Amino acid sequence: MISLKRIERSYDTKAGRTWVLRQVTLDIGRGDFVSVMGPSGAGKSTLLNLLGMFDSDWSGEYWLDGHPVHELPQKKRADLSRRHIGFVFQQYHLLDDLTVCENLEIPLTYRDVARGEREGIVADMLDRFGIVGKKDLYPSQLSGGQQQLVAVARAMVSSPALILADEPTGALHSDQGKMIMQTLKQLNEAGTTIVQVTHSEDNAAHGDRIIRLHDGWMD
Predict the structure, then answer these.
(1) How far from 33 is each of 23, 41, 116, 186, CA to CA, in Å?
(2) What is the pTM of this model?
(3) pLDDT tens-digit series, residues 157-215
(4) What is the distance between the alpha carbons of residues 183 and 194, in angstroms, rounded to a whole number?
(5) Please, which pLDDT band fits residue 134 given cuts at 50, 70 and 90?
(6) Has residue 104 been placed in a domain?
(7) Is residue 77 part of a domain?
(8) Cα–Cα distance between 108 and 98 in angstroms, integer?
(9) What is the DSSP letter of 3?
(10) Euclidean distance between CA atoms 54 and 80, whole angstroms
């Protein structure tokens, strides 16, 4: 499903060029569950943002489900991402001026899901994550853990083929974290491809492969 060839990412700084990813070549099959690990600054989140097409300033080849991302203009990349990828951001990235319910609806609108069907899907997701009572609240009215639950629910709501998760249990207490990992595992067993960044060996063990980064290089 994913094929990366010689991916490199760097930043220009006053001290010169700083490399974040170096010669990353990687294949991830449909239905894989891959955990990306490594120390802070290793390039883990950069790799995930690149896969999610939030970062376009890189070199190399990126193929997603047969689409040559490296050759596509930004608008087509964004459309491809919206239709195939669910992303769990480390900092949540919920829209502050929308309620929980409205935040969950956004991915469904990208896929032209009818309004009545959207309402039913969102209702099921609210119930699944135990946040029905929060549906009319705004992100600023939620705790960090509650925002994290909403962010994970939003990534899953449209049943994407690929879920990218950046520390998906970072703000959650242990029981919530276990529930999220179990949910990801169930989705994976049903065919969803998952790539997660994590510092947790326990979370990484839910996957079937661990990729380790160090100073931008794959070990």
Answers:
(1) 22, 23, 32, 11
(2) 0.93
(3) 999 999 999 999 988 888 889 989 999 999 999 999 999 999 999 999 999 999 999 99
(4) 11
(5) very high
(6) no
(7) yes
(8) 15
(9) E
(10) 12
45-51 long-range contacts, CB within 8 A, separation 24+: 45/90, 45/166, 45/197, 46/9, 46/20, 46/21, 47/7, 47/21, 47/197, 47/213, 48/164, 48/166, 48/195, 48/197, 50/7, 50/9, 50/21, 51/2, 51/85, 51/164, 51/195
Instruction: Look up residue 40 and give its two tokens.
Output: 């802070």
* 127: Cα separation from own chain's centroid: 22
Residue 24 is assigned to a structural domain of this protein: yes
Residue 60, domain CATH: 3.40.50.300
Residue 194 lies in a domain: yes
Number of domains the chain is built from: 1
**Residue 53: domain span:** 2-94+144-218
